[in-house]
Amino acid sequence: MFTIYSSDVTGNPGNCSYPHKQVILDEDSLKNAISHDYVCAEYKNSYRNGDNFIGSNCLPVDCDNDHSENPEDWIAPELSLIHISEPTRQAEISYAVFCLKKKKKTK
After folding, report:
1. What pLDDT does 45 receive?
2. Measuring CA to CA, which residue among 1, 96, 3, 107 is closest to residue 55?
């Protein structure tokens, strides 16, 4: 179980309002919650900015496979964590993203 906060809009990069607390219990509650823009943290007055951060009970991880159409090139669970970085964002808050790289085989 984890909690995210959703907005009333979709695809508006200037939005900072996330008033709807969504407790994720299963696939259906997740699909419903992410049907609008969302954040993985609670903010004072539901307004996202650094000074309003209250807390979070989850850590979002971004693992994209858009670099290749070949499934053999896709990132898979048998990978090692190489570092954590913060993406550049216009907002004051950014979440850590796990960057993964395939383990090198040794003999």
Report:
1. 97
2. 3
How confident is residue 22, by pLDDT bands cut at 50, 70 and 90?
A: very high
Residue pointed to by tokens 């670099």: 67
Two structure tokens written together for 66? 């858009």
Q: Exposed/middle/buried for 40, CB within 10 Å: 0-12, 13-18, 19+?
A: middle
> What whole-number distance in Å separates Cα of residue 27 and Cα of residue 41?
20
Encoded tokens for 40: 């993985």
Between CA 94 and CA 87 the distance in angstroms is 7
Kindly report, residue by residue over 37-96, the tens digit of the pLDDT. 999 999 999 999 989 999 998 877 666 666 677 777 766 655 444 333 334 444 433 334
Whole-angstrom distance, CA of residue 27 vs CA of residue 24: 8
Residue type, 63: C
Q: What is the C-alpha to C-alpha distance for residues 7 and 81, in angstroms, rounded to an integer?
A: 32
Q: How far apart are CA 27 and CA 79, in angstroms?
A: 25
